[in-house]
User: Fold this.
Amino acid sequence: MPVLVNLRLLAEEPAHLEGELPAAACGMEYRDELIRFDEPLRYELDVERQPDGLLITGSLATSIACECSRCLKPFRLPVEIPELANLAPLQGEEAVPIEGDFADLTPLLCEDFYLALPANPLCRPDCRGLSQTASARDSHLEGSPSDGPSPWAALDKLKL
Ligand SMILES: [Zn+2]
Assistant:
């Protein structure tokens, strides 16, 4: 179910939208082996008509299934955008999709959500990575950071 706002009503007064966007509505386009979008995206939005577009404020929240990019342990991560603020144009290349009287805010919300996702999810900020190899790597790194491949280089290879 897309997030739609009635433009005709919006011309008269701001709209308040609340609901859940199913995981499938956003998750299909997001391809990252370490992140799975499997819970609905909860939204609470205020939409206001402005001369040059729609002013959208509010919040987004959900939780995602991740694998730690260092130790590969699965974990869940809450993702929240508590103060969303977005001006969505109604015309031009960046315009929100419009059908009849309704503007579809779904792609916009998905995009904001993607931007809030971690590039390298970690089970905890100080995760040491996989036990043995990681401790060897860590002592290596602490000795001299420029010496030898970084754990990130190894990860990049893994991703390929
Ligand atoms: Zn970890």
Notes: Residues 137 and 151 are 7 Å apart (CA to CA).
